[in-house]
Structures are given as structure tokens and as C-alpha cells.
Design a protein that fits this description.
The protein is an alpha/beta fold. The chain is 33% helix and 19% strand. It has two domains: 2-150, 3-Layer(aba) Sandwich (Alpha/beta knot); 164-220, Trp Operon Repressor, Chain A (Orthogonal Bundle). The structure holds ligand 9D3.
Length: 221
């Protein structure tokens, strides 16, 4: 899969060079292309935003640089074009899986008050939000989307991780422990050191259920 990011702040995406997602790119499990929208403006001062018609606070990203950028990176409309927007449908794990199984992605990141509506109407297939809280732009949401989609691409995670995840569906995860056995007077639960895998599975299921009841009872309904 190829994911192209369109943004006025390309340097923010250096975060995706780290850890599992950074390694997945190095190993060619997917390609990430971060494109500076400013490169496509026809304004002689490289302007990409302007005042809103009708007045109001803040700036609006201009349609021309966005339109030219989308047409340059996806001339045949082979990719799914997504605008990260506070007005979009909230991202779900189900949606993540369907995107990972689909075409290449172009992710448009808005900044300031938003994007000229004509750029959305002409060049965008779908708007996605990552939740009901206010951010300063679509860059962090685009990184969230890349992170959770990339996990499902072949060879990025071990198959065992994804199997564990599907078995624990709709329950919160049990507590994890590693060495040492004692830290500041607190010891690792005896059962996890017993080697009895039936008992360990039983303990983990009980812990998951109790934790879900306490923290996320909505998941059990
Ligand atoms: C507070 C300003 N808002 C009304 C005057 C509109 C607004 C514009 C632009 C609110 C946020 C933003 C910037 N956010 C995003 O571009 C964004 C976002 C978000 O803020 N929350 C959750 N998901 C997303 S996806 C893109």
C-alpha cells in the first residue's frame, strides 16, 4: 500500500520514522510519501491560505494548491482520498480494517479554520474525524490513521499479535508484568510464574472481564 500525505507541515510526520511504523517502511511493507502542499501553489508569494468570505476568525486553506496537489499525486483517482476533518465520521477499528484492505490512500490534512469547501467537493471521497475533541489541524489525526492502518498490512505485526487481538475482542486487556519479580515491595502475581497455562488463561480472562466491567461497561452491552 502507498499512503500519500498532503500537508502544510511535512516535518511533523518525522514521528512515523520511529518504532514499528518506521521499521515497516524500511522493510518496504508500505510506502509513505509526505508532500508539502505549498509546492503546488500558483501564488507568487507561496501563499496557501486566505481570509474567509463572509468574515469570521482564522484563515481558510485555498482550493487551488490542494486541487493541484491531489491531481499531481493521484492523477487517475486510483487512491481513496480522505480529508481528516472534525466534521467527519469518527474512526473505528472496523473502518481501519476496511481501509487496510482497500486501495492506496491520499490523506489531506487541514490546518487553521479548515479548507475551502470546493476542494472538498471536487477532490475528496470521504471525511474522517478521530474523536470529539478539538485539535489544531489534521496532521496528528493523519498520523493516527497511518499508525492503525499500517498494523494490518502484511508483515508489519506478527500474526500472533493480531490473533490475540481478535480473541480478546470487546474486552480490555489484562495487566502485564515483566522482570523483576519484586519492584518496590510489589510482586508479580504468583499464577503468572506457575507455568500452568490453563490457570494463566483463566486468570487473564477474569482480569479482563473485571477491568472491562469497571472501566468500560459499555463494551459488555
Ligand atoms: C474550534 C474551531 N472550530 C470551530 C470554530 C472548527 C475547527 C477547525 C479546525 C476545529 C478543529 C480544527 C482542526 N482539527 C482538525 O483538522 C481535525 C480534527 C480534530 O480537531 N479533532 C478530531 N479529529 C480531527 S480530524 C481533523
Amino acid at each position: 500500500m502507498k499512503i500519500t500525505i498532503l500537508t502544510l507541515f511535512p516535518e511533523m510526520f518525522s514521528a512515523l520514522s520511529e518504532s514499528i511504523i518506521g521499521r515497516a517502511q524500511k522493510e518496504h511493507k508500505f510506502t509513505l510519501d509526505v508532500v508539502d502542499i505549498r509546492k503546488y501553489t500558483e501564488d507568487k508569494h507561496l501563499k496557501c491560505d486566505d481570509y474567509p468570505f463572509g468574515g469570521g476568525a482564522g484563515m481558510v486553506m485555498m482550493a487551488q494548491p490542494i486541487g493541484s496537489a491531489v491531481e499531481a499525486v493521484d492523477p487517475d483517482h486510483a487512491a481513496r482520498r480522505i480529508y481528516l476533518s472534525p466534521k467527519g465520521k469518527t474512526l473505528t477499528q472496523e473502518k481501519v480494517i476496511s481501509l487496510a484492505e482497500g486501495e492506496d490512500l491520499v490523506l489531506l490534512c487541514g490546518h487553521y479554520e479548515g479548507v475551502d469547501q470546493r476542494a472538498i467537493d471536487l477532490f475528496i471521497d470521504e471525511e474522517i474525524s478521530i474523536g470529539d475533541y478539538v485539535l489544531t489541524g489534521g496532521e496528528l489525526p493523519a498520523m493516527v490513521l497511518v499508525d492503525c492502518v499500517a498494523r494490518y498490512l502484511d508483515g508489519v505485526l506478527s500474526p500472533a499479535s493480531l490473533v490475540d487481538e481478535s480473541f480478546s475482542e470487546n474486552l480490555l486487556e489484562y495487566p502485564h508484568y515483566t522482570r523483576p519479580v519484586e519492584y518496590r515491595g510489589m510482586t508479580v502475581p504468583e499464577v503468572l510464574r506457575s507455568g500452568n497455562h490453563a490457570e494463566i488463561d483463566k486468570w487473564r480472562r477474569e482480569q479482563s472481564l473485571a477491568l472491562t466491567k469497571k472501566m468500560r461497561p459499555d463494551l459488555l452491552k
